[in-house]
Design a protein that fits this description.
Order of helices and strands: HHHEEHEEHEHHHHEEHEEHEE
Helix content: 25-40%
Number of strands: 11
Distance between the termini: 19 Å
Number of helices: 11
Structural class: alpha+beta
Strand content: 25-35%
Shape: globular
Largest sheet: 8 strands, antiparallel, barrel
Strand order of the largest sheet: 2-4-3-10-7-9-8-5
């Protein structure tokens, strides 16, 4: 099992970056684009998956599929209760991200899918039943996502390689609808892709009782309409990016779109969204060193107009990402 403190070598990182751009790319396509033999690529991909270094998965676009809204929760726990509260959160099927951050107290951030406004009210009014030792929490609803973790990739490939990988993937419709009804067969296909985004159409057809052609059409339909995003889950530390931080920015409403778009264009930013609250833009960045974080704040963020305030927190441990539960941090 690969540990978060490990670092993968350059060849593995190139394959992972390619799979971040197109998680379902065939090994022959990967080999041709990256200049490696197909059997070598197949062996490397198999090793990366079986070792736990990567997990090809998928996530719903919850708003487009009518499955609810994403909310970000900031929770402060009692001293010594951080791991216990985090573990309880990871067991919830409606929570897809749980991270601990540095700060004045024991703080967790989690991302939760809330199905409707009444459930959001219950969350605000009653809190999170069954989550121990939480002494204070805040709820911030996601209003617009500028870039998702599923769209982020390690910037180690050439522009030509990236372009070829994007062309090899299912292409999005230029103007998908804001909302689609999710059919029962589509849910079955989505569940299979969440379990393994690289499942073959042959295996998918056998598992679900479709023809191979039907399985292919249903996968393509989910991806074309952006109902589902494929994602190669990997800890940034394995890619040589051990410093991960969360930013909460204060931006005038009229500048939210411009700031969110500018921020999400930087390769260090793996997530960026507008949220409710005084601090109305949230972002996650991945970097090689604390000095790079300083330069990001000074050069990148400092060059974006209309940012009137920023709170920065280092992510000290990820307990769950993309619905994938991570091991507890090692104790001395």
């Amino acid at each position: 099992m690969v540990k978060d403190s490990d670092t993968l070598h350059a060849g593995d990182r190139r394959i992972i970056a390619a799979l971040q751009i197109n998680p379902r790319a065939a090994v022959g396509v990967l080999g041709r684009i990256l200049g490696e033999h197909e059997r070598t690529v197949a062996r490397k991909v198999r090793r990366l998956v079986t070792s736990g270094a990567i997990r090809p998965t998928a996530v719903y676009d919850t708003l487009r599929c009518g499955r609810g809204s994403a909310v970000h929760l900031r929770l402060e726990t009692h001293s010594g209760a951080l791991d216990r509260a985090a573990q309880a959160l990871t067991q919830r099927s409606d929570v897809r991200r749980v991270v601990a951050v540095s700060g004045r107290s024991s703080v967790l951030w989690c991302e939760m899918i809330v199905p409707n406004i009444p459930e959001l009210h219950n969350l605000v009014a009653e809190g999170l039943p069954g989550i121990p030792d939480v002494r204070r929490f805040e709820v911030h609803t996601t209003l617009r996502t500028f870039t998702t973790v599923a769209e982020w990739h390690l910037p180690v490939l050439s522009p030509e390689e990236e372009d070829l990988l994007r062309r090899s993937a299912v292409q999005h419709l230029p103007t998908p609808a804001d909302r689609y009804e999710l059919s029962s067969p589509e849910r079955q296909v989505a569940d299979a892709l969440m379990e393994n985004a690289r499942v073959s159409l042959t295996d998918l057809s056998h598992r679900l009782g479709f023809s191979v052609a039907t399985a292919g059409r249903r996968v393509a339909s989910l991806l074309e309409r952006r109902m589902l995003y494929l994602r190669t889950e990997v800890e940034p530390g394995l890619l040589g990016l051990p410093v991960q931080a969360q930013l909460c920015l204060t931006v005038p409403p009229a500048a939210l779109g411009a700031v969110g778009t500018a921020l999400s264009a930087y390769p260090e930013v793996r997530y960026c969204a507008a949220i409710t609250g005084t601090q109305n833009l949230i972002a996650e960045v991945c970097l090689r060193h604390e000095a790079d974080f300083y330069r990001f704040l000074d050069d990148r963020l400092g060059g974006i107009p209309h940012v009137s305030g920023v709170a920065t927190e280092i992510i000290t441990h990820a307990y769950k990402r993309g619905f994938v539960v991570k091991p507890l941090p090692a104790t001395s």
